[in-house]
What does this fold into?
Amino acid sequence: MTATILNGSKFRDEIQSELLLQVTDLKREGITPGLAAVLVGEDPGSQIYVRNKVKACEALGLFSEKIVRSKDSTTEELLELVNDLNHNDKIDGILVQLPLPPQVDTKRILMAVDPAKDVDGFHPVNVGNLVAGRAGFVPCTPAGIMEILKRSKIPIKGERAVVIGRSDIVGKPVAMLLLHEHATVTICHSRTRDLPAVAREADILVAAIGKPTFVTGDFIKPGATVIDVGMNRLSSEEEVRKLFHDPTAPLATLQRRGEVLVGDVQPEDARAIAGAFTPVPGGVGLLTIIMLMSNTIKAARTRRVVSA
Ligand code: NAP
It folds into this structure.
């Protein structure tokens, strides 16, 4: 069997076109959705993420404001900033790029974001809404996974879904979304006994672990849909040779770029055994920012359109 590759860029482009129409409608009513991206410190990864989020706003014609604060910022200073943004009417969505520096109380900052502007879906009010199946903001990566499944017409109702990973950002919310779509859901983690056997029960297997190629062929039921959320960077030739059966292509990437982006799933095994598979790169990761845009547009509509 050769798995169907679920191409993230195709779904991202589809969603982008749909969002463009929504933005046009909002602008006709005099509303330009706005996103504030708060970047604290100089972490290179965070800088790239924020830059890409601002670019995505520009591509859709959204207003965006990038706010950079020093790595020495205190919790109180950031609380004041969030409070200002909560009261700024041009801003519909507030994104605080994580991780924050260690002296900052991240939970307090995320709790301070107005739930109506919490486009990352991290505020407990939105977590509660998600659990209760009520309207609110769903975290972007899990929302992107559901878009991939639905747009690929992968059956969910009545299917066995296994999610490996129980983080607040990916594992728990995606499990909840699958449950709302009537999958029978099992959540696994580092203490799960006989993980490959549990994973092999899955019609839909979601890997959100953070360990390169952890999910090998013995985890995958033939024909299953495998969603690889992992984003792991390999920089040594030895590691690449160890993790790939045929390391030719990844070794070439390593030589060209100095690193190889690898998921949590062994891609050669997934291609051979799964029915459908999201590749890394080129899968789930491409949906996250467009879902942030979708949440920002939804926030603008909910806050500013009286009839929404
Ligand atoms: P996380 O907070 O570190 O959570 C990892 C989860 O994996 C934990 O629940 C942990 O279990 C579980 N785990 C670790 N080792 C395990 C093992 N040996 N067996 C079974 N379970 C194990 O990670 P995360 O934030 O959810 O991210 C997971 C991956 O997705 C990372 O590679 C990250 O880079 C990627 N990611 C991608 C996107 C995107 O595509 N846009 C977004 C977010 C994250 P315990 O709870 O028991 O420790």
Notes: The chain has twelve helices and eleven strands. Residues 141, 164-167, 169-171, 188-192, 195, 208-211, 229-232, 284-285, 288 surround NAP (CB under 6 Å).
